Fold these 3 entries.
Entry 1:
Amino acid sequence: MKTYEIDNGHVRAVFLDYGARLHQLWVKEKKGTPVNVIAGLPKPEDYYEDRWYRGAIVGRYAGRLENPLPVGEPSITIENDGGLLLHCGSSGWSGRHWELVKHTPDEIQWSIKCQDGSSGFPGTVVAQVSYRLENNALQLVYKATTSRPTPINLTNHAYFNLHPQNPIALQHLQIFADQYLALKDNLVPTGALLEVTNTPLDFRTAHAIDNGLLDDCFVLKQEKAARLFAPATGICMTTYTDQPGLVVFTPKDFYGICFETQKFSNGPHHSHFPDTLLKPGSEYTQQTTFSFTVENDL
């Protein structure tokens, strides 16, 4: 496993080729001291045993998919556990070593090739992800092409904690969404969009996360997706994306919060969901930015 770093004097980021992982991200808190806001693992080799996808690029389809896959006739049987595939299972890109394409002081770019038939999916997919520092922000740009029609849904699975190693419940969260996806017991979307009004998922006004565990997909209405603020450090992170969905996840095993910018889980099974089907001759693109400031409050 190889380690790489980019640094523009404002932000420093450390990456691993395994999963094209964001291993560390150092930003300045209100006293000017750099802190690592990624809830990662202490040693690079620890990620080989990680089951939380920490910091990794997830593909070719992030989220949950029900078997069979409705692409063409007849439908395609995909790898599944009890009828469900999470984050692309055994062929998931989080468990692959990516190829380094570009490395400059403020940018790193990786590529990966996923063969036709991987986990049952059609098409050989070639994908790239670029991490670039711009002032106090980290920008991710994704691209992918395919040899056959196939669903594509990519995201980064980094967990953030703006007051490292302290409870995420004390940090304040704002999500710019009026709706979220209704879920079955197995966390697969039913297809219904529900209003956040008068629910525990109403974060339109910033407030402390408290002790509730989140694992929900919000329907975004603008490129500014969410803000996270830690009063103890003054660090505020704003997430921007061109994607229609934001999965917000707080694990029960450690202090962190994940902002998975993406299209919707199980999208191919719901025609009214954003289309995830990529066809030959077209290019999948996605852009997400995590921007950092120091604030007194949200």
Entry 2:
Amino acid sequence: MQLGTFGLWISPRRIRGEDQAEAARLAEQLGFGALWLGGSPQLPAVRPLLAATRELVVATGIVNVWQYEPEQLAAEFAELEAGFPGRLLLGVGIGHPEATGEYARPLTKMASFLDGLDAAPAPVPADRRCVAALGPKMLALSAERSLGTHPYFVPVEHTRFARQQLGAGPLVAPELTCVIDRRPERAAATAREFARTYLELRNYASNLLRFGFDERDLADDGSDRLIDAVVPQGSAEEVAASARAHIGAGADHVCLQTVGVEGVPHEQWTELARALFG
């Protein structure tokens, strides 16, 4: 799929349903290649985004495998594919332990879920799905059974690691949260507020400990160097430089999530597009 080098990632908590179609149109007009819908969406939620645009790829970031039966998900994918051929990328993920009481053996669960997508009456092709992955085993599974991986809340070092693990070919498409705000103190406070939740989740915290951070960095809402690494802040040009650093580390596609603004962030996305595309 032609995702382009840069895309956008939106949360339904910040851009609500009635505004998401507008966000999709704006993303396409500004030249972004893909729009990722987060928040563990049900797949039909992407239909308005596809209907509002002509060529934009719409991706899920991610459908939670604990919340779906694979046959149902495959049927919903087939229905959308019939209406919008070649424009939907199915991102699936295991979520985190705090989100479900059923969480156990995540690698086995993901492999079984992908088996179900393959065995469905209308299978989801491997090159039309990607897997959220942080650790080496899930990364390997993403390369073997899908287009590649969509990591979330990761520093550049993880992107470099993912590319080294997967080699050339599989997709590496990290999400990059950012704050476009030229007021340093306010930008840092926004970034720290966003990061607080993820630093309390075991899978994200454990992953950061593998990439140059320690328990002191995770304490007290995160050290400055940790926050700067996972949630870059500043002007659109400074944020664009961080996105390009992920590309330089081996990413094929970086999807940027701007935080600190409720609703469709027209100004921030426009500035970001100017900085990324000229």
Entry 3:
Amino acid sequence: MAASSAAGSYDFAALGTDSGELDRLQLQASRSARLELALLERFGLRDGQTVLDLACGPGVISRLIAETHPACPVTAMDLSPELLDAARAEAAGAGLERIRFVQGDVYAPPLEPGQFDFIYARLLFQHLEDPLRALQAVRPLLRPGGRLCIMDIDDDWLTLVPEPQGFQAFTEAAARAQAQRGGNRRIGRQLGRLLEAAGYSDVALHVETVSSRQLGMRAFLDITLGFKRLLLSGAELEAAAGTLAAAEALVDDPQAWALVGVFLASGS
């Protein structure tokens, strides 16, 4: 069987510097950071643990963990050298020189086994062609009793109220495009089963509803729709133009709501 692409359905370099993707990633992480931190602590993050931020992107969550848990040695790993450069620069600017940055592939992490108490994978598994193999590759990195926590999405839990005409067709087109690249925009519902199949114990699955009232409608739309736009091109993107314009108009509608279900799965 051919090896799965490490990048899966997400390749930062291929998106180009003019895509605005780095800004979107930083916004996505920073606007939800405090909510995420509370959820991670609920799932077992404690000061003094050795922590791995798997697929750290621009490092917003790595920095947050290092700032709020100063006794935690934090390792931040990502496949993209460009994102790691951005993460290093941001960490240095914040005076967080103790974060260790590692370039690595989730299917073959270049890390010594048995060294982490807590591993966090944020919005990674929706992009992976072979999530089970990734879970099996990551599991040896945990110490006995250590815990992996995954945060990801399931697009069937994304709702805009009022819903723009064509919104379901737009999300389905984005899901097909991501699937063609090896991803799965409905990975959330599968995470518990996958963790058990990969040999993790004490598996838990929780769904947290995040709304536009928490993030602001502008940030909510940028976070949830921005990458979907990048997945489409040509006729499909043209067909979605009216839907996206109607979604943008919700920013100025004080009665509009938007909600998404965020899946958090964990296992030891």
